[in-house]
Structures are given as C-alpha cells and as structure tokens.
C-alpha cells in the first residue's frame, strides 16, 4: 500500500515538480560536457583531431562549390584523381533529422555536443526503463564517459562518436516496446535509429543491431514459453516499421553508399594476380564482395587485453604515453624531453590510441547485475558482452571469427574488428545501472521490537530505542550478492597484480628502440615503468571497487539513505572514468589553431596556385596517400580516405607506388611537391592534359591483362580497353593528324570540352571512370562512353567540330533524396502522434508484458 501511495503522490504532483529532476539532470550533463571540454567552451581552443583536419582538406572543394553555387557537388577531383562525395561531404535536403539533432544538442559546439548527446541518450534510456533519475544519471555517466568515447574524439572519429551516442535511444525503444508500451517504444526506436543511421557510421549501427537481435531472440523464447507469440509478433512488426522509417529518412545516404560500396576498396579487387608484396593471389572462386580478411582483422584486440575493461593500464595504455620525472626511465637518465611520449604499450596491436576501459565501478556493478537483475535482461546483456569480446579478438580467435566473417551477412564489409567492444560498452553500463537501481530501490524497514511494558519501565524503553534495527528480508538477501560481486571484481584485480610478476613486459617495438640507441639499462627501465603502470591501476581499481562496495553495504545496513548513496555512486563512476579519460583526451590535445589556420598554403602551394589552368593534378611525394593537405588547395593524386575507389587503389599498389611515370602522365600530374626547400615544386612536362586523341586502341580480355598492359603502355598515343567489360570496343587504329581537344569549362561534377578532328577518333580523358552517375553528351545529346587504361574515361567521337560534356547525375542521389523527404515527413507525423498519445494515455492503457521488472 505504501508503494501505491507513493506512486500516486508522484503522479499527482505538479508537472514542474515531476520535470525538475530531469531538467537538473540535463543541466548537469551540459555542465559535465562543458567542464571536460573547457578549453573549447571557455578558452576558444579547438581539439586537435587528425581525421577531422584531413576531412576538411578532402571536403574543401565540394564545400566551396556548394557555397558558391547553392547546390551540392556530388563529385570531387580533390582526392585520388576524382571520387564521389557520398562519403566525404554531401548534404541531403530531404533528410530533416538534422533539425532534430540540433534541438537535442542545444547549440553546443561540436565534440562538446557529442559527449552531451551520449549522456543525454543514456539517461533517456534508463528513465524509460523506470530507473529513478539519480541512478539514471549514474548509468548515463557510465555510458557517456567510457574511455573509448573520448579516445575516438581525440582521433577525430566524430561520426562514430555520434552513432554511439544515439545507440541507447535505439535500445531504449526496443526495451520499452517489448516490456512496456509498444507504441511509445516503437516511436522512440524510430527516432533513435533515425539519428543513429544519420551519423553514417554503419559499422556501429551493425554492432548495435547485433545486440538488438540477441535481445529479440531471448524475448522470442520467453514469449513462446509464456504463450505470448502473437503479442510478440505485433510488437516486432511495429519495430520493423520503425526501422523502415529510420532507413527511409537516411535512404539517400544509404543508397548512394550502397552503390559506391560496389566500387570501393571495401570490396574485393577484380585482379587475380597478387600485388607486389602479397603472398598469394585472390582466390578466383571467391565471390565475396567484402574486404580482405587480413585487412579486416588487422586491428584485433588481444585475448589478454580484455582485462583492460577493468584495469586500463594492464598493457601500458596507449601506444605513446607520457611518463613523469619520477619514472624509472627518468631515473635511468633519459632526458626529460623524451618522456612526453614513450612506447608504454606492450600488447599485440600495431597501434592503439588507448584501451577500452569500462570503469572499475561499472565492472563491479555489471557483475552484481548478473546476480540481481531479472533473468531475461541479464542473459541478454551478458550474451551481448561475451559476443562483443569474442568478435573483438578477431585473428586471435580464428576458429570463431573467420567463420563469422564468412557467414554473417554484411560483416565482411567492415575492418578493425576490435571496434566490436562497443557492444560491451553499451551492455555493461546498462546492466550495471539496472543492478544499482535494484539495490537502491526502497526496502521495507522493520521496526525494533519494543516490549509491551516498555512504557512502565524506562530502562527497557531506552534499551529498545538503542537496539539495532534489523535488516529487511529483501536487503538481507541482496547483501551477500553485493559482497560476492565485490569479491569477484576485486579478486580479478588481485590475480592481475600477482600475475604481473611473471610478465617480462617486452613489446615488439623494443627491438626498434634498441636499434635507435636504447641501452639495456634504458630498456629495463621502460619495462619497469610498464609494470608500474599496471600495478598502479590495480590499486586504483581496488580503491574504487572498495568504495562502491562500502556505499551499497552501508545502504543495505540502513546506515545510508538512498539519495546520498546514489549521489556517491554517481561521483565514484564519474571520478573513476574521468581520470582515465584524461589520459587519452587531456588538455594537451587542445590548440588555439583553427581548421582554417591549419591550412595555410606552403611555398610550394603558392607556386602551383599561380597556374591559371582550369584543371590539372598535383602529387605530393611526401606520404601522398595519407594526407589531405594537398587536397585543400589542389586536385590531388593522393588524399586521405578509408574508402577510395577499388580500381584506383589497385593503380596505387601496382603502378603509382612503382613510380610508373606514364601512369602519372595519363592522370595529368602537372606538378610534384618534393619537400625539398631548394626545389619545392617540379613541373612534369609529360603530363598529358585534360584529354587527348590516341592513335591506337588495344584490347585485352581481363582486368589483370589491362593492369599488366599499363607496365609498357604509352598513354599519349595508345589506350587499352578490357573487352570482357566493353565487348563493343574493338582493337583499332586512328589517324589523329590535326585532331585537337580542349577543356573549356570545369566544375567538380560537370566538364565541358570542345574538339576538332578531320576524322573519327578515340578520345581519352584524364578523369576517373565511374559508371553509376557520369553521363556523356555530344552536342547536347546523350552518348555512351567507356573505361580505358584501367581507370580513365574514353569516348569514340565523330569527325568535325563538336562539344563534349560530362555531367555527374546519379539516379541514386535524386531517388534517395525523394525517399528521404517522404520518410522525414512520416517521422514528423510519428513524433506528433507519439506526443499526443503520451499526453492522453492512461497509466493502464498498455500493461507491461514482462513478468518481472527489469531490475
């Protein structure tokens, strides 16, 4: 009765009183995000994000065109000699979800908004599950401040960060739909998935959907056992409609990405012969369209590294970590200026920006959740966590992961399988928050026994008043489980500490250090520092576990009230994670230099920019295929992007990397940036220009033969065509005497040429061939064109004086944008409908389906 009365009093309270805890929580999240990123908010600095800087370089041409022309550039020539802007910088006007994101981020600056979103969405998830606000804050902090969230922001993986931030909304919608209100749950799911997909990091969405599928399987089994299959199917159908709506809003982005994936290096090469340095050729019977297995598993989490979920510095932290003046290396005599970035990491990965750390307190609560949270929820989150760890091991657990890579639909499109730990990053804090909610919910408190004649005997009354109040039966049942969880988590720390004395702390990089002059004494000191980092974090973890255990112990013993207990747990989770996060995203990562200031033209850039030509290309000979500084100013042969065209990647690996000058000539490489201060720029006299007539067309019968032909091809006079792809083109010779062609108009996705030729001929263009979008016109009439020289466009042309136009007009963009617009309108109607429904729904309108509460 007391619980009913309490619920009644809460529901009858004024709306502002009910809203106040949530408003305070949101303000708290704003404060946390602003304080963490105070150099941005208060000092006007920016976060030095490598990938964002490179993005700005690659996107500059398209962005400037959009500003000047008021329409999107669907193609850019600023990277890799030309590629679609689908995965670089492209706006879809039909997608209205951006307005929703602006509302949710409250106008906060980028990066600050990312952290705020992660906190806010985590809080919404937990409140939707019935968790009280203060406990929901603790869970939101655990979700938002997981170390991976901050490490990826330091690297510039903003889209990945946003996709992760919205993941709790998706899970919240699923849980509410199945366990509480199907209509509100489906609406929340549609909104969350819309925003998650909009972030355009499909690998995160894929992992999120794996967690949803696991939940669905467990719910299906429970529904079948309880005879509730029809109701389960209804709710599943509603979620299916929500998913369709979410995909529809981002359909333009997804459709163009899907189309591009067929041609990108996320698919397999058509070549069967091995590239230089490869051990073997592609299996000719392999019809997979995914990435190469070795490429996908390049970043695999070590089996032993899984302990970093609990002990962050178990393997030394990041690849480069600062060491203090009291470190063993400093005492061994290493100059202090070298201590700012030492290779403390000794795990198996070739590089890491930092470990995935869930938090000692979160790990303790996760273990506790395995004891106290209702079975269906606990099994779901435990299964997700285990799957996450197994997938992240990648090549370190070949038997399982190679099978999954081959049979799981779409999984072979992704790389860096260590990212699968984001599933655990979601599951562990959620289960931990539910466990905390279970322990801190009100328990009936028995009164001390007072003898009936206590009033007549003051001494008895005094003794009774001083008597210890016994624990309730529920609290007494929970206390051993809390102690078990604490013992297990602390025991793992102790075992890690004891095991550390058997480690040698040697790393693969140590051999390189020895070659660079590291003495045996310095190497021994470095390894001693690695040991100290591990053992220091063990003691740190034990401290936080002990503190969290003490809070729950004293609460269950009745010596601490629920509100202060929850507040202390919020503080413990925050301090624990904040301290580790600052190791990988600290004040040293901020700078006063803005993106615009980062792109100041070098003397070489200034010299090249004096050329008034409409279009030509530049090769920066200093790491050309991993930088986009050149792309900011010029049309670059190189660039920086994880999904370049597959055929262009083949060209890089087999021709450009082998210094085939003729291939550079056919790509119209007019300038080379040398990096030599004495001669920063070299002009290439052999560059063939924007287009030219060839006197001979050779045909081959496979992509391998076409690539091999480039070894000796003279592209100024010859072109090679793969007849297996373009059977209409036959070998031919032409008299090109008196034939000329010139580029007369340039924009990123529209090129105009004029030519004169006494005879029919074949023109080759120094432009990348892309079948799905580029349309050719002769004197305004559509004409076909073909691919030549493995990557370039070519066109047979009639004699006379004519104009040629190429326009990039992909149907996928126009169709996709239309679907996005229709879906955006539908989503808006769903939001309005959900708001009306929520305001009118009675408490008993849709009874929960779950047989037991979540926690």
UniProtKB/TrEMBL annotation:
<protein>
    <submittedName>
        <fullName>Membrane protein YfhO</fullName>
    </submittedName>
</protein>
<dbReference type="Pfam" id="PF09586">
    <property type="entry name" value="YfhO"/>
</dbReference>
<keyword id="KW-0472">Membrane</keyword>
<feature type="transmembrane region" description="Helical">
    <location>
        <begin position="563"/>
        <end position="580"/>
    </location>
</feature>
<feature type="transmembrane region" description="Helical">
    <location>
        <begin position="106"/>
        <end position="127"/>
    </location>
</feature>
<feature type="transmembrane region" description="Helical">
    <location>
        <begin position="74"/>
        <end position="94"/>
    </location>
</feature>
<feature type="region of interest" description="Disordered">
    <location>
        <begin position="269"/>
        <end position="290"/>
    </location>
</feature>
<feature type="transmembrane region" description="Helical">
    <location>
        <begin position="161"/>
        <end position="178"/>
    </location>
</feature>
<feature type="transmembrane region" description="Helical">
    <location>
        <begin position="416"/>
        <end position="436"/>
    </location>
</feature>
<feature type="transmembrane region" description="Helical">
    <location>
        <begin position="134"/>
        <end position="155"/>
    </location>
</feature>
<feature type="transmembrane region" description="Helical">
    <location>
        <begin position="538"/>
        <end position="556"/>
    </location>
</feature>
<feature type="transmembrane region" description="Helical">
    <location>
        <begin position="818"/>
        <end position="838"/>
    </location>
</feature>
<dbReference type="InterPro" id="IPR018580">
    <property type="entry name" value="Uncharacterised_YfhO"/>
</dbReference>
<feature type="transmembrane region" description="Helical">
    <location>
        <begin position="22"/>
        <end position="42"/>
    </location>
</feature>
<feature type="transmembrane region" description="Helical">
    <location>
        <begin position="205"/>
        <end position="224"/>
    </location>
</feature>
<feature type="transmembrane region" description="Helical">
    <location>
        <begin position="379"/>
        <end position="396"/>
    </location>
</feature>
<keyword id="KW-0812">Transmembrane</keyword>
<feature type="transmembrane region" description="Helical">
    <location>
        <begin position="236"/>
        <end position="255"/>
    </location>
</feature>
<feature type="transmembrane region" description="Helical">
    <location>
        <begin position="482"/>
        <end position="503"/>
    </location>
</feature>
<keyword id="KW-1133">Transmembrane helix</keyword>
<feature type="transmembrane region" description="Helical">
    <location>
        <begin position="351"/>
        <end position="372"/>
    </location>
</feature>
